[in-house]
């Protein structure tokens, strides 16, 4: 299947859960927020949520900030 | 200063200096500067993670969320929709309902869009967020924000990153007298005396980023700001003497030859 992760096209083998995708990317689930097709996913669902062809995934985290730059 | 804690929405904070985590050279410098500042509230932004560099580190590896209250902001959001979306993402990325709400009105000044701010605050408060709004030094807007349920208001001293210091001390003073929630002076501080002045006027806390991160020696400036905020707070509580036009002798006249 093809998914878009943070604006980048990626090919991935099905089935793929959100937790598996994060692990492939070297990300810790407790440090990120995940939005799929504009809907925010609860962290508790990362392990069971399967991604589908065409999904647009956004993975966000905290970065240094205090003022808008 | 532990006998004088800052309490917002039932949360108790030890330090009245809050700091941002942007503009540092690296995470290690961020960590050291924040430690030197004594702050226990640190603001962060929410952005896409770097998915191409697997070795990229996370800010939270350097700032223990058990030690610091992580306050996500909605910096860079110019619309109500974006500010609400980023607030929800911040809550999903973190562990709390706290958000420093920014709805920016203009790129050049980064002044808040106060109409959008009130609208976004209403939406987020209804969703259970604890909204700390970055607002203008406008007493009417500050009062509206407090009235709709913001447990503190954060008026600017001057444009973000400008270092101009407090441009309108009288408006800030009116805000402090008008709203019945803590007032945190946010943005525009340039040096230690600016922070001390804000506290002497009666601010409950000061939030800054560039003044520390942009200093030649951020760690030293962080320490200076810590002292300035403490000194200003103590002077405020101690109560300054009234200003008089003429002298009043400090030494007695009796006993003179």
Description:
The complex is a heterodimer of chains A (69) and B (257). Chain A has a five-stranded mixed beta sheet, with no helix packed on it. The radius of gyration of chain A is 12 Å and the shape is globular. Chain A has a single domain (2-61), classed as Ubiquitin-like (UB roll) (Roll), CATH 3.10.20.30. The N and C termini of chain A lie far apart (36 Å). Chain A has one helix at 18-24, and strands at 2-5, 8-11, 32-36, 39-41, 56-64. In chain A, a hairpin with a 2-residue loop joins β1 (2-5) and β2 (8-11). The longest helix of chain A is centred in the first third of the chain and has 7 residues, at 18-24. Chain A has 69 residues and is mainly beta. Chain A contains one helix and five strands. Helix content of chain A is 10%, strand content 36%. The radius of gyration of chain B is 20 Å and the shape is globular. In chain B, a hairpin with a 2-residue loop joins β1 and β2 (11-13). The mean pLDDT of chain B is 93. Chain B has helices at residues 27-37, 80-93, 114-126, 139-147, 169-178, 192-201, 210-213, 218-238; strands at residues 6-8, 11-13, 17-20, 41-48, 69-72, 98-101, 130-135, 154-155, 184-186, 205-208. Chain B has a five-stranded parallel beta sheet with strand order 5-4-3-10-9. Chain B has a three-stranded parallel beta sheet with strand order 6-7-8. A two-stranded antiparallel ribbon of chain B has the order 1-2. Chain B is of the alpha/beta class and 257 residues long.
Please give a handful of descriptors for the protein shown:
heterodimer, A: about 70 residues, mainly beta, Ubiquitin-like (UB roll), five-stranded mixed sheet, 1 helix, about 10% helix, B: about 260 residues, alpha/beta, five-stranded parallel sheet, 10 strands, globular
């Amino acid at each position: 299947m093809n998914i878009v992760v943070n604006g980048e096209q990626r090919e991935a083998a099905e089935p793929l859960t959100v937790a598996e995708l994060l692990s492939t990317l070297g990300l810790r689930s407790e440090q990120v927020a995940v939005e799929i097709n504009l809907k925010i996913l609860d962290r508790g669902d990362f392990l069971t949520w399967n991604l589908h062809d065409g999904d647009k995934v956004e993975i966000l985290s905290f970065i240094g900030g205090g003022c808008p730059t | 200063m532990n006998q004088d804690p800052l309490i917002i929405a039932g949360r108790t904070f030890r330090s009245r200096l809050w700091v941002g985590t942007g503009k540092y050279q690296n995470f290690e410098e961020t960590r050291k500067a924040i430690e030197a500042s004594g702050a226990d509230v640190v603001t962060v932004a929410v952005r896409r993670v770097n998915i191409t560099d697997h070795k990229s580190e996370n800010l939270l590896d350097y700032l223990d969320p058990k030690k610091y209250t992580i306050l996500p902001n909605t910096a860079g959001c110019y619309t109500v929709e974006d500010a609400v979306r980023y607030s929800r993402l911040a809550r999903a990325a973190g562990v709390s309902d706290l958000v420093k709400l920014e709805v920016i009105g203009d790129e050049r000044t980064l002044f808040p869009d106060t109409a959008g701010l009130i609208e976004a605050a209403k939406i987020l408060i209804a969703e259970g967020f604890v909204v700390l709004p970055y607002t203008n030094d406008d007493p009417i807007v500050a009062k509206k924000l407090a009235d709709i349920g913001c447990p503190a208001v954060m008026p600017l001293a001057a444009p973000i990153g400008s270092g101009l210091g407090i441009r309108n001390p009288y408006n800030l003073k009116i805000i402090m007298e008008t709203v019945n929630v803590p007032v945190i002076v946010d943005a525009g501080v340039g040096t230690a005396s600016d922070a001390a002045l804000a506290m002497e006027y009666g601010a409950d806390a000061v939030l800054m980023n560039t003044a520390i991160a942009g200093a030649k020696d951020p760690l030293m400036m962080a320490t200076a700001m810590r002292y300035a905020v403490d000194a200003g707070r103590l002077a405020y509580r101690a109560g300054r003497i009234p200003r008089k036009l003429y002298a009043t002798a400090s030494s007695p006249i009796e006993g003179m030859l």
